[in-house]
Specification:
Radius of gyration: 17 Å
Number of strands: 11
Length: 224
């Protein structure tokens, strides 16, 4: 709520789990934040019933969404949510592809997962100017995963903010990258609540999706 983002990328979101009052958290959060458009897919079953997975919440209509399995066996199930948004502003609209990912804990696993993502259709066939946002929990312990996205045309910031552990961040495990758009700034929340609400600090980005050189449009995106 403090970030007041137009689009949220969340990981480990519960549904019907005993530990979270059997709530479908994507709807609880969406209702509380006034984000009417949502998509959620389960990844991992939770003891006692229910599951957790990745979610995208948006002020803008989500035209379609799917779950991309990037599991590297025998590791824990991992996936990427692909949501196609129709972003409207100033009587103009554009299609924006959003990819919310939660990568694995092992370095070789993360690299294989990003390669799977880059070879995924329709990602592989998208035009270089199509607006694409990639964000989430990369578990990027050593800080080099972004370099795997650069050859595919993605850009981020030179040094993403550290996000883990939340109480005193030393690792930039989370980040946001764009293609067909411009990252105006990327920052982490410094509020007292952000330091205890999760084991990761949330990131926020201001991203500009241009219609044409004379009509840039800025939107806010949050990940955490």
């Amino acid at each position: 709520a403090e970030i007041d983002a137009d689009v949220l990328l969340l990981q480990e979101v519960d549904a019907e789990a005993k530990r979270s009052n059997r709530d479908r958290q994507v709807d609880v959060l969406g209702d509380a934040l006034g984000l009417p458009h949502r998509t959620w897919f389960a990844n991992v079953n939770v003891r006692g019933g229910g599951a957790y997975g990745n979610a995208v919440l948006s002020r803008y209509p989500i035209e379609e969404s799917c779950n991309i399995d990037i599991t590297v066996g025998p590791k824990k199930r991992r996936s990427i949510v692909h949501a196609t948004l129709r972003v409207r502003s100033d009587e103009r609209s554009r299609t924006v592809h959003v990819f919310n990912m939660h990568l694995g804990l092992a370095e070789f696993e993360r690299k294989l997962q990003l390669k799977k993502f880059l070879s995924y259709e329709p990602m592989r066939g998208m035009h270089a100017t199509t607006p694409i946002l990639v964000g989430g929990d990369f578990n990027d312990v050593w800080g080099g995963l972004g370099q795997l996205l650069v050859p595919a045309g993605f850009a981020g910031v030179a040094k993403p903010p550290a996000t883990f552990p939340a109480w005193g961040p030393v690792r930039a495990l989370d980040s946001i990258y764009v293609r067909g758009a411009e990252m105006k700034r990327l920052w982490r929340s410094e509020t007292a609540l952000a330091k205890r609400a999760s084991d990761h600090r949330p990131l926020a980005a201001e991203i500009e999706f241009p219609d044409d050189p004379d009509q840039p449009v800025a939107d806010a995106v949050g990940a955490g």
